[in-house]
Design a protein that fits this description.
The protein is α/β, with parallel strands linked by helices. The chain folds into 2 domains: 16-101 and 214-256, Periplasmic binding protein-like II (D-Maltodextrin-Binding Protein, domain 2, 3-Layer(aba) Sandwich), CATH 3.40.190; 104-207, Periplasmic binding protein-like II (D-Maltodextrin-Binding Protein, domain 2, 3-Layer(aba) Sandwich). Helix content is 35%, strand content 23%. The chain has helices at residues 2-18, 31-43, 60-66, 78-88, 128-140, 190-195, 200-203, 228-237, 240-249; strands spanning 21-27, 48-54, 72-77, 92-97, 99-100, 104-106, 121-125, 145-146, 159-161, 167-171, 185-188, 206-207, 216-221, 255-256. Helix 2 packs across helix 8 (228-237). It is globular. The termini are far apart.
């Protein structure tokens, strides 16, 4: 009986491998890449083989998805995706939520926002969505006041009041950790902070609230949202195994959405 059971198991595994779906999923460095490694392990026995493709910026993953080079991506929040679809005409759709990564303010020169002097240099992301997100955080911290009606994508041009005369440096998000030697503060997305060895909860001098609109998502091309592999991808991501990994490894700097 044991021999028959073993043979049956082997045949079942072989059949699963034979008919497994294979997809490429684009991620950004840091927590998104690390989490997707766990998702891939969870998805494999469910009949889904995930090839993880890592991108170094925020623009290419949506272009690659729209062009058919990958089947899904997992790196962005909803406002950024909506802005990309509006500006570039991408026909993409959200199939599931993933994590929230509160943006943090980091500094090698001050330990408290109140210590910032007049004319301090502030580095923020140069893409409209994350740059706007950084400015909204700085407004919440009382450093600036933004014009009414700018929504989630204000720019430095929308600053109405800047009592400290802060000087804004708009840079590629991936380069922001390198600016800490020069700028007084830098507002950095968690994935790039993590890649540089920084933890938003422990190393930032201020952190975004976790209940904002910036939940991250899994996106696919319009028309693929009902594919079996898309459902499996979401189920694998929103699994107990992935939740446990996040809670054990990111010390509160990454928060699950499920």
């Amino acid at each position: 009986m044991l021999r028959l059971t073993t043979l049956s198991s082997v045949l079942a595994l072989a059949a699963t491998a034979l008919f497994a779906d294979e997809i490429k999923v684009g991620v950004s460095p840091g927590e998104h890449a690390q989490i997707m490694e766990v998702v891939a392990k969870v998805a494999a026995p469910m009949g889904l083989d995930i090839d993880i493709v890592e991108f170094s910026d925020y623009v290419i993953p949506n272009t690659a998805l729209a062009d058919g080079d990958i089947e899904a991506n997992s790196f962005q929040h909803v406002p950024y995706l909506n802005n990309q679809m509006k500006d570039r005409g991408f026909e993409l759709v959200v199939i599931g939520t993933t994590i929230t990564t509160p943006m943090g303010v980091y500094s090698e020169k001050v330990s408290d926002i109140a210590e910032l002097e007049k004319g301090a240099r502030v580095a923020i992301p140069n893409d409209p969505t994350n740059g706007g997100r950084a400015l909204l955080l700085l407004q919440d911290l009382g450093l600036i006041t933004l014009a009414d009606g700018t929504g989630l994508v204000p720019s430095p041009l929308d600053i109405n009041d800047n009592p400290k005369g802060l000087k804004f440096l708009e840079l590629d998000a991936a380069q922001l950790p390198r600016t800490l030697a020069d700028a007084e503060i830098a507002v950095i997305n968690t994935n790039y902070a993590s890649a540089a060895g920084l933890n938003a909860k422990d190393d930032s001098i201020a952190m975004e609230k976790a209940d904002g609109p910036y939940v991250n998502v899994i996106a696919v091309r319009e028309g693929d949202q009902d594919q079996d592999w898309a459902n499996t991808l979401v189920d694998a991501y929103q699994s107990d195994e992935v939740k446990a990994f996040i809670e054990e490894n990111f010390a509160g700097s990454v928060i699950t959405s499920w």
